[in-house]
Amino acid sequence: MRIDILTIFPEMFESPFNHSIIRRAKQKGIVEIFTHNIRDYSQNKQKSVDDYAFSGGAGMVMMIEPIALCIDKLKSERTYNEIIYMSPDGHLLDQKTANHFSTFENIIILCGHYKGVDERVREIYITKEISIGDYVLSGGELGAAVFCDAIIRLIPGVLNDETSALSDSFQDNLISPPVYTRPADYKGHKVPEILLSGNEKLIKQWLMEKSLERTKERRPGLL
């Protein structure tokens, strides 16, 4: 998979993309991530990428031209499955969506800032808008990092144990059951006996029951 990210703050991705699972995915050659500074495509001396809104009011708007030039260049080099805009009014990211995007080969992610991007960018170029929650961030960079992490970990070969992702919360519209490790007894707080029994059938049944129980209690809307 190749991911191209358009941003005015490319340095914000240095830490999240150079550690843990995403770092291993890059080292294995499973995923390539490229950040593109939108300011590099600005046509004025100041390298500005924003201007006042015609509608008035506070806040600046990202101009269409630098964004268009960058997207056009990338599209001339390869075909993209989707061009995504991180937006609070986009489709709410969930596990089903992450599963879907993890199968793609090439995607572009546009990170907005200020009051957003010129609406014509969305009309002409954007094929999908994604939100990570019903709240507003200072820019799309953090949302893009979350989105990338959610899809990259699902790509075959990224996790050491590929079955791990299949048991994550929300994969089957259920919250994951509780998990335990050593010691079996910590100051009187003991691991449930059934998990120590070695009876695989009963353990699976217990895990499913606990998963349903937690989902009903904490996220009943998933059922």
Q: Could you describe the 3D structure shown?
A:
The protein is 31% helix and 19% strand. The chain has helices at 20-27, 64-77, 95-101, 119-124, 141-152, 163-166, 200-218; strands spanning 2-7, 32-37, 50-52, 60-62, 82-92, 106-111, 128-131, 185-186, 189-190. The strands form 3 sheets. Strands 2-1-6-5-7 form a 5-stranded parallel sheet. Strands 3-4 form a two-stranded antiparallel sheet. With 223 residues, the protein is an alpha/beta fold. The chain contains 7 helices and 9 strands. The radius of gyration is 22 Å and the shape is elongated. The model has no long low-confidence stretch (mean pLDDT 94).
Reported for the largest beta sheet, the result is:
5 strands, parallel
How would you spell out the order of helices and strands? EHEEEHEHEHEHHEEH
The order of strands across the largest sheet is 2-1-6-5-7
Task: Report the sheet-strand fraction.
Answer: 15-25%
Return the domain count: 2
In short:
With 223 residues, the chain is an alpha/beta fold. The protein contains seven helices and nine strands.
Please describe the structure with a list of short key phrases separated by commas or semicolons.
223 residues; alpha/beta; Alpha/beta knot; Trp Operon Repressor, Chain A; 2 domains; 5-stranded parallel sheet; two-stranded antiparallel sheet; 7 helices
List the helices and strands and how they pair.
Blueprint: E1 2-7, H1 20-27, E2 32-37, E3 50-52, E4 60-62, H2 64-77, E5 82-92, H3 95-101, E6 106-111, H4 119-124, E7 128-131, H5 141-152, H6 163-166, E8 185-186, E9 189-190, H7 200-218
Parallel strand pairs: 1-2, 1-6, 5-6, 5-7
Antiparallel strand pairs: 3-4, 8-9
